[in-house]
Each structure stands twice: as C-alpha cells, then as structure tokens.
TrEMBL record:
<keyword id="KW-0238">DNA-binding</keyword>
<dbReference type="GO" id="GO:0003700">
    <property type="term" value="F:DNA-binding transcription factor activity"/>
</dbReference>
<dbReference type="InterPro" id="IPR000595">
    <property type="entry name" value="cNMP-bd_dom"/>
</dbReference>
<dbReference type="InterPro" id="IPR012318">
    <property type="entry name" value="HTH_CRP"/>
</dbReference>
<dbReference type="Pfam" id="PF13545">
    <property type="entry name" value="HTH_Crp_2"/>
</dbReference>
<protein>
    <submittedName>
        <fullName>Crp/Fnr family transcriptional regulator</fullName>
    </submittedName>
</protein>
<dbReference type="GO" id="GO:0005829">
    <property type="term" value="C:cytosol"/>
</dbReference>
<feature type="domain" description="Cyclic nucleotide-binding">
    <location>
        <begin position="12"/>
        <end position="102"/>
    </location>
</feature>
<keyword id="KW-0804">Transcription</keyword>
<dbReference type="InterPro" id="IPR018490">
    <property type="entry name" value="cNMP-bd_dom_sf"/>
</dbReference>
<dbReference type="InterPro" id="IPR036388">
    <property type="entry name" value="WH-like_DNA-bd_sf"/>
</dbReference>
<dbReference type="InterPro" id="IPR050397">
    <property type="entry name" value="Env_Response_Regulators"/>
</dbReference>
<dbReference type="GO" id="GO:0003677">
    <property type="term" value="F:DNA binding"/>
</dbReference>
<feature type="domain" description="HTH crp-type">
    <location>
        <begin position="144"/>
        <end position="217"/>
    </location>
</feature>
<dbReference type="InterPro" id="IPR036390">
    <property type="entry name" value="WH_DNA-bd_sf"/>
</dbReference>
<keyword id="KW-0805">Transcription regulation</keyword>
<dbReference type="Pfam" id="PF00027">
    <property type="entry name" value="cNMP_binding"/>
</dbReference>
C-alpha cells in the first residue's frame, strides 16, 4: 500500500500524537472519493466529520445569485465538517475533491472530543485560527486590487503545496480560472488579466492547471 503523504503543518492531524491518531482512526472508517466528487454538500445535515489523509479539496459556498465563492483549499491532515459534526446544524459549505482524495470518516465526533480533552482544546485553537484567516481575507478584498489578491493566493499555494523546480517553485494547481476567481472574489476576466500581468513581470509562468513561480519574493511584494 502506498503510504499517505505527511499532513500539512498546522492542520488538525499534524497536531495529534500517535496514540490520538490511532484512537481517531479506530473510531472511523476509511473512504475515497474521485476527482470532482462532492464530499459534503452545503445545507445537508450530517453527523460525521472527515479527516483528510491524501489529496486536496475546495470548500465553497454559493451566493443567492448562484455565484460560487471558494472559501478555502484544504490538503492532507485537514479536518472537515467539524462545525456541523459538533453542532448538529446543516453544512455551511460544499466540499469538492480537486483530485482523488482519501480520508477517515468519524461519526459522533463530539464523543471522541469528550474522551480526548487535549484534542478538544487543539480544535478550539484551530477554529480560532480559521476565524482570523477569514477576517484577514475580508480585509484583503477591501484593500487589495485583483492582481494583489491573486498574488496572495498563489503565494499561499506555493508555501503549502509548492515543489522546487528548475529556477522556481511549481504548484500543480487543481483549480480552474473560474475557481481561482471564486477564491479571490473577482471575475474570471479580471483573474485572467491579473495572471497575464504577473507573467509579463516575469514572476510566474502558467500552464494547464499549473503555475511555476520564478520570483516568490517578488510575488510576495506584489501581494502586499
């Protein structure tokens, strides 16, 4: 069996001890989804959470007008569906597999937290971090132009998923331009123009579902 990739630093699974991971795995069951599959659907009522062990997903919601807003990209080690799993309220977003993904489905997650007080505190800290990140993104939407927001998201992807390549950092980007637009709060046309501007500056090179960043510091400066 191919081993799962290591969890992303700072994601839920990376914070647990080996014993806590073993108890969590024992409390759940493994599942797999193909690329493009809906893992969780906004509005659904469900009593389970998912700990992602491989692959990446997008978390999104739709406006009243039907526009998709991408809220986050999550990778190995992420905990998904925890709010509805704890509160018994409907899902607040849709989770879609950007590539084949695997994870552990855990039902009655609240019972697991009752038995593992340290994990409950860690989860509280993780949720506070997500709220801070959400606040930061709202500030970005008001303070940055589209190119700045696109640069910010590319820097985030490079830092989380980038792989060194000749003269740069390659990001296998499992997002379409429409999805990148939904993640930056811009139109597809504005995102296309922003990418062209970053290419013209020699900061990046784009291809089908991939980006190579040649000047990460320059991209960070443009993001700011």
């Amino acid at each position: 069996m191919t081993p799962h990739p290591s969890p992303e630093p700072g994601e839920f699974l990376s914070l647990l001890t080996a014993d806590e991971i073993a108890d969590l795995t024992a409390a759940g069951r493994k599942r797999r989804w193909d690329r493009g599959a809906t893992v969780m659907a906004e509005g659904d009522t469900a009593d389970w959470v998912l700990v992602l062990t491989s692959g990446r997903v997008k978390v999104s919601s739709h406006t009243a007008g039907g526009t998709e807003v991408v809220l986050a990209i999550r990778g190995p080690g992420a905990l998904l569906g925890e709010m509805s799993g704890i509160s018994d309220e409907p899902r607040s977003g849709t989770v879609t597999a950007l590539e084949p993904v695997e994870g552990v489905v855990v039902r009655d997650f609240a019972a697991f937290l009752h038995e593992h007080g340290r994990v409950a505190v860690l989860l509280l800290r993780l949720l506070v971090g997500r709220l801070r990140d959400s606040d930061r993104k709202r500030i970005e939407y008001g303070a940055f132009d589209t190119t700045g927001r696109v640069a910010t998201r590319l820097v985030e992807l490079a830092e989380r998923f980038g792989e060194p390549t000749n003269g740069g950092v390659k990001v296998a980007l499992p997002l379409s331009q429409d999805e990148l637009a939904g993640w930056t709060g811009a139109s597809r046309e504005a995102v296309s123009k922003a990418l062209r501007s970053l290419r013209d500056r020699g900061l990046i090179e784009t291809g089908r579902r991939r980006v190579v960043i040649y000047d990460l510091e320059g991209l960070r400066r443009r993001a700011r």
